[in-house]
């Protein structure tokens, strides 16, 4: 099998690969099925999942608490900028856990961290740079809309209405852009040997072609995050890995990346059990 994988990798003509992977049409409530599959993964690998959940929760809680305590604009900016670069590493690690489960392998934290921190680091950082550009534009837009903040010393909620409305609108735009770019791109980088640009374009295309289902999905994500924060961040330990697992299954359910070659080495170099059963 190793020889076959090497032969496939050697014979692939990169110039003939499609610019974007095709996507399937999703049913409206398909994301609920992704969550169900994510719960199954969580039960099969509780310890590795909780390790990632605890680490990610500590980082998010630290950012929120420091922002609340110090209120320094540049400090919060630096913390969030660092989180933008760390998020892809955390996501790839969660996807690596699901990939090992699908292949009937015992989940290895060594392989998981290697996949997250070494195997796909080049494309992860390119993707992180894309997010950083969006984040910088978002910060710039946020400073511009401050002109709508009331200048009177004594102002009420009605005076804040314009500022809050514009801020919400601008925030929704950048949230939508970020979601479109990241919904399926990192799972695709983990699954197939593709560049970050192809993965991002594929993700944007899939989201725009399945707007209703993706609205349900982002609503579930936001609900889970709000619930996690409302439980003094404790719920995030469970919710964050669940979102990661569900995202992986959402990618497999949505994107047909079969035209792209497998990675030569790593967890996803071999097919899943379901792929083998279909042969």
- Radius of gyration, in Å, reads 20 Å
Summed up, the helix count is: 12
Mean pLDDT: 83
Helix content: over 70%
Amount of beta strand: under 5%
**What structural category characterises the helix and strand content?**
mainly alpha
Elements, N to C (H/E): HHHHHHHHHHHH
What about the largest sheet?
Answer: none
Query: In total, how many domains does the architecture comprise?
Result: 1
Number of DSSP strand runs: 0
Question: What oligomerization state is this entry in?
Answer: single chain
What does this structure look like?
The chain has one domain (20-270). The protein has 279 residues and is mainly α. It is globular, with a radius of gyration of 20 Å. It has twelve helices and no strands.
Keywords, please?
279 residues; mainly alpha; 0% strand; globular
In short:
With 279 residues, this protein is mainly alpha-helical.
Topology (elements, then pairings):
Blueprint: H1 2-11, H2 30-44, H3 46-70, H4 73-102, H5 109-119, H6 121-144, H7 157-182, H8 185-191, H9 196-209, H10 211-230, H11 236-254, H12 273-277
Helix pairs in contact: 2-11, 3-4, 3-11, 4-5, 4-6, 4-8, 4-11, 6-7, 7-9, 8-9, 10-11
């Amino acid at each position: 099998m190793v020889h076959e994988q090497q032969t496939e990798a050697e014979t692939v003509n990169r110039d003939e690969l499609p610019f974007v992977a095709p996507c399937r049409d999703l049913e409206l409530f398909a994301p609920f099925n992704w969550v169900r599959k994510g719960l199954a993964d969580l039960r099969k690998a509780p310890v590795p999942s909780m390790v990632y959940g605890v680490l990610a929760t500590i980082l998010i809680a630290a950012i929120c608490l420091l922002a609340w305590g110090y209120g320094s604009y540049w400090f919060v900016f630096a913390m969030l900028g660092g989180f933008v670069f760390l998020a892809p590493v955390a996501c790839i690690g969660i996807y690596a856990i699901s990939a090992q489960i699908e292949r009937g392998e015992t989940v290895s934290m060594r392989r998981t961290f290697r996949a997250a921190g070494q195997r796909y680091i080049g494309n992860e950082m390119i993707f992180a740079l894309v997010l950083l550009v969006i984040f910088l534009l978002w910060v710039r837009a946020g400073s511009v809309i401050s002109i709508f903040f009331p200048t009177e010393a004594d102002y009420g909620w009605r005076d804040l209405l314009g500022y809050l409305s514009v801020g919400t609108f601008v925030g929704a735009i950048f949230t939508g852009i970020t979601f479109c770019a990241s919904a399926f791109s990192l799972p695709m980088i983990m699954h197939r040997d593709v560049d970050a640009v192809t993965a991002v374009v594929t993700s944007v295309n899939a989201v725009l072609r399945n707007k209703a289902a993706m609205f349900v999905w982002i609503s579930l994500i936001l609900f889970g995050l709000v619930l996690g924060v409302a439980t003094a961040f404790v719920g995030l330990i469970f919710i964050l890995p669940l979102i990661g697992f569900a995202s992986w299954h959402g990618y497999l359910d949505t994107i047909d990346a079969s035209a792209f070659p497998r990675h030569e080495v790593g967890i996803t170099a071999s097919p899943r059990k379901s792929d083998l059963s279909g042969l």
